[in-house]
Amino acid sequence: MEAERPIGNLFVRHATEIALVTLTVLMMLAAGAFWRQEDVSWQAKGWVIHTYDVKTHIESLFSSLVDVEVGQRGYLLTGDADYLDPYHEALRNGPKLTAENLTARQHRSISQELAVIRTLTKDNPAQQSNLDEMDEVAGRLLTYAKSTIHQQQIQGANAVGPKIDLRHGRELMDHIRSLVRIMEAEESHLLDLRSEADEISTNQDAWMTFLSLAFFYVAMASAVFFYQRSQARGRSQLLLYTEELEKREEELKMQQEELKTSNEEIEAANEELEEKTKALEQQNAQILQQAAELSESKRLTEEKAREVERASKYKSEFLANMSHELRTPLNSLLILARLLAANEQGNLTDEQVEEARVIHNGGLELLGLINDILDLSKVEAGKLTVTAEDIAPEVVASRLQQQFAPMAKDRGLAFPVIVADGAPQMLHTDTQRV
Length: 434
Fold this sequence. Notes:
Strand content: under 5%
Order of helices and strands: HHHHHHHHHEHE
Number of helices: 10
Strand order of the largest sheet: 1-2
Oligomer: single chain
Shape: elongated
Low-confidence stretches: 1-8, 157-161
Distance between the termini: 100 Å
Helix content: over 70%
Structural class: mainly alpha
């Protein structure tokens, strides 16, 4: 009697190992996805906390500046040196700034608070520009407070002297309040964006957890189902093979001579069957590999589509916010410049009226450029409109003279604009962009 051959194909023989390997790979992929999502979530929460820290230090800086102004004003009005305690406290340096105590709640001087805010907002050019202006105005306020206190001390000793003007300090504080509102508005805007990102990340965590549990349930159920099915198939094949062997054994008993003559043919048929089985196993392996590659390609495509949709959403929100933030103050500037240029009350000189016209014209050109820049969809589609017209070089030179002469005058410089003798009579171009 022939020795028994292995039963079932490769999948049936190694169903347990394949199931364990598949589940292990899925667990590793899920762990990697969870780790990545957790990192993104922690980053989003960190930015929200960072924004709250910046707002806290802006409030602390403003409180210190108010203490300076209140202490100075109280001393000037009463002559009582006790009113200078908040003034001196605002100027007193706290512990040396380090990376460890940068966001710690502790006393700091005005200069230290400015340094902390500048460090925390070093990635925000707009806030850095606001801090430059705040640094300059705060320095002027401290200089003014120091000089008036010194003047009051001298007058208090001599009981004579000119009256101290308190309006300048109030004007400086109004300027500081305006800058504080601008900086807080910028941080509030960033807080809204970062809070939204944090909320999105939290929702993604919840969805990923739900989908992972559902996926693992399906994977486990499928693995058990296919394992049991493979075992049943193996038992069925074993039973069939056993019955076939028994039948052949009976036939062998009756047909010994016939079996001997056909033994070679049977061996050849068995070899052919083994080759076909191997070929079938290879085809199954290729099909499984192609299915895995197709699944991975589909996942990457869906992930890329989500990234594109998210980028488009952020771009649209950014354009909507920037359109409002830029156009609103610029339109106010244009209205005020136009009213000054009209000089309806006749209280401006010709030079001042001309300067107002320069501001108005420059603002209109800037508004046009902002509209073109903010219309990012036209730029991406290559449909940015260029309005070409004939214009004399003298007109371009005159507009340059009007726009830059005030800055040159402010710096004590001359700014002559000369049209060369060989210049063309007319230029055909977009005047605004030139």
